[in-house]
Amino acid sequence: MAEPTEESVSYDESESTVETEPSTKIITGPEITGWPSRSDLLMAGFDLRQAEKIKASGDKEAQRTVINVCKIGTTARYKALDATTELEATKSLIIKLESENRNLLRRVLKLKQECDSVKGHQDEQWLIRIDEKKKIIDECDAKIQQNNREFSLERRLFLVILSLVIFLQWIDQHISR
Question: Where is this region: Disordered (predicted)?
Answer without folding.
Answer: 1-24
